[in-house]
Structures are given as structure tokens and as C-alpha cells.
From TrEMBL:
Organism: Vigna angularis var. angularis
Membrane-crossing residue ranges in chain numbering: 76-98, 110-132, 153-174, 204-222, 229-250, 270-290, 302-322, 348-368, 400-419, 425-448, 460-479, 485-507, 514-536, 542-566
Entry membrane topology: Multi-pass membrane protein
CC annotations in GO: plasma membrane
Name of the featured protein: Cationic amino acid transporter C-terminal domain-containing protein
Name of the encoding gene: Vigan.02G320500
UniProt key word Plastid: no
Gene Ontology MF terms: L-glutamate transmembrane transporter activity; L-lysine transmembrane transporter activity
Keyword line: Amino-acid transport, Membrane, Transmembrane, Transmembrane helix, Transport
Domain Cationic amino acid transporter C-terminal residue range list: 515-564
Location within or outside the cell: Membrane
Family statement: Belongs to the amino acid-polyamine-organocation (APC) superfamily. Cationic amino acid transporter (CAT) (TC 2.A.3.3) family.
């Protein structure tokens, strides 16, 4: 038991974990009566202005907010665990399912270039995440980082996208699990799903996907350490299968299948890159393990950078082996690798691949349950959702309530929604969050409250607007005229000059204590550009869904989140004032 927990036990009687009173869900002043709520709504604009640029700090995110959970999570992980968590979180539905889908529909044999482009962009984001994870080792991950650097409102929008990414990502992997399980049993593609008369994309009900999510959640609730051990075993088996796929694929390679290499042109390559970015999306899970890592400053950089470097190489080799085994027009969009081996006479190999894919997707779900529950926990600590979800169980040291929330939501969506609908939506959310993290890192390096002058703050904002705006211009021009070049002669130099201006006319105000991103501002700026570019390569429908979800988030924020966080912030200020006054006396 931690020192803080013992102090709490001595100060007041410990309350049970399972409790359901209104104070556990809505303790804020604004929700104590209908009149209070109406009064709070009438002050929405004033409260919004108050919270818009209200920023947290490192100590609040890493120490103060943990008190909301009442018990600490157990520090039981090291760099070896994090590397395997990286493998477990990332290698799953993306490489085994989306590779075939995107090679067939968008990129052709050039799918390997799509993985190179996505991998490059992901590595840039990994650098930014690593610095934040070392400097602000919190279970909140990107949500905590953005609260510190860009304020409550931006953090909430990002939190909404994190939740969207978490729920939909898990549902997509669970649907893929059913597809590969069906293939392993040698049954028709959708034979284990229930067909209905609902709209296409939602008409195949998947009870197996929902069941797998529930089982994974039960395992992660029991123990983080035991989940890590199980992840080691499953990831080791999955790695053996991957080595088999790469070697066997190249042994049965036919270089004629690579022609034509770019059947859909460069636009198809980047459109596929934006979709398969989903395959890299799990690396941010490692950052949420900071509160359970023994030495975050050492273990997190090794875990993040080590696992992602190896995964990028593996993805490119697997994509190339698939393209050389089978022509892109013949690649199966549901179980690409299994059918490809069947086409070259290795019918038995499809069972090995299906088994390995199932193992990979199982570890993705296990690690996702861990990381997503910790996101939820930290968001609840800030009262953006009811604080009941922030509680950590005293015996297991895991956030059971948060795990239940994410599991129920994912299981419902997985039951109804097809993979093609899920993958395009999740890519928008993932790219948006990674872009915001890169921008936040530039703010962290060049702005410190009470130190940076107003003149330099204005310059920083101006350069950020130029970088983001020019990146959007590059992306827009690519979408409108992918074979043109005139627009790039304006947008690319503007991006370059914006980044150069930040480098020459601003001085970095903060030096990382342990590990930092090299070549600032160039690497974060390039990360912004590549993430925005890949976002622009997605189809129109993905942004419609993304826009609808964002509007729903904003409605929730102005009706609930804003008032809950406003009340909590002012309550903390009052307590701090009392403590300061007492110390002064």
C-alpha cells in the first residue's frame, strides 16, 4: 500500500469500491439541484472563456489528480514489458486485414510504399510522444499532455477523439478476430455472423466479436502483471508466425506480380497510407503505462522507440511478401495472407497464418483494454466524465470501472458495425490526435508561463498557424490535383519558411530533463505536415463521420464537461488558497 493511501486511511474511513451514490457520479456544485444546473448553463459563455486557455501543469497531472483514484496503480512493468506491449498493441488487424484491403482497392503492389509513408509519419509522432511520456509520466497519455500545453478545451476535443479511437479501434480488431476465426475453421466468410435487414455495413451482427472483448477485459481487470505475462507468450507466438510469413512469402515470390507497381498512381499510395495508419495506432498505449512503469525515464523511450522501429521494418517486409505472392487484383480483402498462401499451393499455411493473426489480434485487444481504461481513468480524474470511472480497485490495482465503460461501448459497436466503416473513421481520429501532440510539443519547447514574453508568444502562435495552414494547403492541393505541381511551389515553401522562422526568431524556453526530440522544430513540424497530409488523403465520408462525432462531443462538453471541470478547478483553487493561508499563518 502506498504512503498516500495509508495517509488517506488514517485521515478518513476508507469507502468501499462498489458504490453508486449521486456524489460518486455528479459531485460538482452545478449538478446538486436543477436550479444550480440552470444557473450554470446561463453562465456557459463566461465559464467557457475561463476554461478555454486554462492550462494544467506537470505536477498536477502526475501527482495531484492521482488522488481522485483513491488508490495507486501498481508499478510492476519494465522496458522489456513495454517492448512486448508495443508488439502486442500494434501488430494485429492492421497488417493482417487492412494490407489486403488497401492493396486490392487503392495501392496495388505499391502497398509497401504506403507502409513506408505511414511508418515514417508514425515514427515522427513516436518521438513527440516519447518526450512527453518521460516528462509527464501520467496514465492520461496524450490527454494529459495537451491539458498541460494547450488547455482544457483542446484537451477535451482530443479526449473525445481518444475515446472514439479507443472504442472504434477495439471494435474493428474484434470484428477482424471473427473473420480470421472463421477462416481457421475453414468456413464461408460471414458464416459466423448473423445476417439482418439493416443498412449495409451494419447488417452483419457479430456476437463473437463482442464476446472476445468481454473476455479480454476480464483478464486485464484481474492483474496488469499477469496480463503482461500473457502478452509475452501470445506475442512470441505471433512473432514466430510473422517470421514464417515473411520467409515463406519470399520463397514463393513471383516478381511479375509487382507489375504494374502503381496501378492507382501516387494518390492511391497515400490514400492507402492514411487508412493503414490504423496499423500503427497502438503505440500510444505504451505512454499510458507510465504510472505502472518502474523507471519511466529509462523504460518508456526504450519501449516506444525500440518496438516501433522493429514493427515498421516487419510491416514493410510482410506487405512486400504479400504483393509478390499474389497479384493485387486477386488479393482477398478479408483474409489476405491466408488466401495468398493457398494460391501458391500451401493450403495448410493458411491455418498457421490464421492462428498467428488470432494471437496478434488477441494481444491487441489485451493491451488496448489496459491503455484505454487508463485514458478513461485520467479523463475521469479531471471530471470531464463522472469521477466514479477514475477509481482504482485497492486489491487488483486496476481501474475496473473505466474498463467496464470502454468494454460495453466497444462490444455494442463491434456487434453491429463492419470493418470498412470502422477503419476509415479511426484513421481520422488517430491522425488528428497525433497532429495535436506534435503541435503541443512545439508549444512546450517555446512557451513557459511567466517566462516567455508576450511578443514571443505572438510569434509562436503566428508560426504555428503558418505551419498548420500550409500543411492543410499541401493536403488540399494533393486531394484536388494529385498530378499537379503549381500549388506545391507555394505551400511547401510557406511550410519551410514557417518552420525556419520558428527556428531562427524564437529561443527554446524549456530543455528536456532526460530525453528530448532532436532537431526541434523541424521534426515536430514535419510530423504535423505528414499527419495533416495523410488526413487529407482519406475519403470524404470519413470526415463526415468525424464531423458528426465532433459535434456530439461539443454538445456533451457544453452541457456537462465544461461545468464539471469548471467547478472542480475552482474548488481546487479554494483549497489551495486555504492551504497557502494556513501556511502563512
Amino acid at each position: 500500500m502506498s504512503t498516500r493511501t495509508r495517509e488517506n486511511d488514517e485521515a478518513e474511513p476508507q469507502r468501499g469500491y462498489w458504490r453508486w451514490s449521486k456524489q460518486d457520479f455528479l459531485p460538482e456544485e452545478s449538478f446538486q439541484s436543477w436550479n444550480n444546473y440552470v444557473s450554470a448553463l446561463s453562465q456557459t459563455w463566461l465559464r467557457f472563456k475561463d476554461r478555454l486557455f486554462s492550462r494544467s501543469d506537470d505536477a498536477t497531472e502526475t501527482e495531484e489528480l492521482k488522488k481522485q483514484s483513491e488508490h495507486d496503480m501498481k508499478r510492476c512493468l519494465n522496458w522489456w514489458d513495454l517492448i512486448w506491449f508495443g508488439f502486442g498493441a500494434v501488430i494485429g488487424a492492421g497488417i493482417f486485414v487492412l494490407t489486403g484491403q488497401e492493396a486490392h482497392d487503392h495501392a496495388g503492389a505499391a502497398i509497401v510504399l504506403s507502409y513506408v509513408a505511414s511508418g515514417f509519419s508514425a515514427m515522427l509522432s513516436v518521438f513527440c510522444y516519447t518526450e512527453f511520456a518521460v516528462e509527464v509520466p501520467s496514465a492520461g497519455g496524450s490527454f494529459a499532455y495537451l491539458r498541460v500545453e494547450l488547455g482544457d478545451f483542446v484537451a477535451f476535443i482530443t479526449a473525445g477523439n481518444i475515446l472514439l479511437e479507443s472504442v472504434i479501434g477495439s471494435a474493428a480488431v474484434a470484428r477482424s478476430w471473427t473473420s480470421y476465426f472463421t477462416n481457421l475453421l475453414n468456413r464461408p466468410k460471414n458464416s459466423l455472423r448473423i445476417k439482418t435487414n439493416l443498412k449495409e455495413g451494419y447488417n452483419l451482427l457479430d456476437p463473437i466479436a463482442s464476446g472476445v472483448l468481454v473476455i479480454a477485459s476480464v483478464i486485464t481487470i484481474i492483474s496488469t502483471r499477469k496480463t503482461s505475462f500473457l502478452n509475452w507468450i501470445a506475442s512470441a507466438i505471433n512473432t514466430a508466425v510473422i517470421i514464417f510469413v515473411i520467409i515463406a512469402g519470399f520463397l514463393h515470390a513471383d516478381t511479375s506480380n509487382l507489375s504494374p507497381f502503381l496501378p492507382y498512381g501516387a494518390k492511391g499510395v497515400f490514400q492507402a497510407a492514411a487508412i493503414i495508419y490504423f496499423a500503427y495506432g497502438g503505440f500510444d498505449s505504451i505512454a499510458t503505462m507510465a504510472e505502472e512503469t518502474k523507471k519511466p525515464s529509462r523504460d518508456i523511450p526504450i519501449g516506444l522507440l525500440g518496438s516501433m522501429s522493429m514493427i515498421t521494418v516487419i510491416y514493410c517486409l510482410m506487405a512486400l511478401s504479400l504483393s509478390m505472392m499474389q497479384k493485387y487484383t486477386e488479393i482477398d480483402t478479408g483474409a489476405a495472407f491466408s488466401i495468398a498462401f493457398q494460391s501458391v499451393g500451401m493450403k495448410w499455411a493458411k491455418y498457421v497464418v490464421a492462428f498467428g493473426a488470432l494471437k496478434g489480434m488477441t494481444t491487441v485487444l489485451l493491451v488496448a483494454r489496459l491503455s484505454q481504461a487508463r485514458y478513461i481513468t485520467h479523463i475521469a480524474r479531471c471530471h470531464m466524465i463522472p469521477p466514479w470511472f477514475a477509481l482504482v480497485h485497492p486489491k487488483t490495482g486496476t481501474p475496473i470501472n473505466a474498463t467496464l465503460l470502454i468494454t460495453v461501448a466497444s462490444a455494442i459497436i463491434a456487434f453491429f458495425t463492419g470493418l470498412d466503416v470502422l477503419s476509415s473513421l479511426i484513421s481520422v481520429s488517430t491522425l488528428f490526435v497525433f497532429m495535436m501532440i506534435s503541435a503541443a510539443l512545439l508549444v512546450r519547447r517555446y512557451y513557459v508561463r511567466g517566462v516567455t514574453s508576450r511578443e514571443n508568444l505572438v510569434k509562436l502562435v503566428m508560426f504555428l498557424v503558418i505551419i498548420i495552414g500550409s500543411s492543410m494547403g499541401i493536403s488540399a492541393f494533393w486531394g484536388l490535383k494529385p498530378n499537379g505541381w503549381v500549388g506545391y511551389t507555394v505551400t511547401v515553401p510557406v511550410w519551410f519558411l514557417g518552420t525556419l522562422g520558428m527556428s531562427l526568431f524564437l529561443t527554446q524556453q524549456r530543455v528536456p530533463k532526460v530525453w528530448g526530440v532532436p532537431f526541434v522544430p523541424w521534426l515536430p513540424s514535419l510530423s504535423i505536415a505528414t499527419n495533416v497530409f495523410l488526413m487529407g488523403s482519406l475519403e470524404y465520408d470519413a470526415f463526415i463521420r468525424f464531423g458528426v462525432c465532433t459535434v456530439v462531443m461539443l454538445i456533451y462538453y457544453f452541457l456537462f464537461g465544461l461545468h464539471a471541470t469548471y467547478d472542480m478547478a475552482h474548488q481546487q483553487q479554494m483549497l489551495k488558497s486555504k492551504v497557502d493561508h494556513t501556511e502563512t499563518i
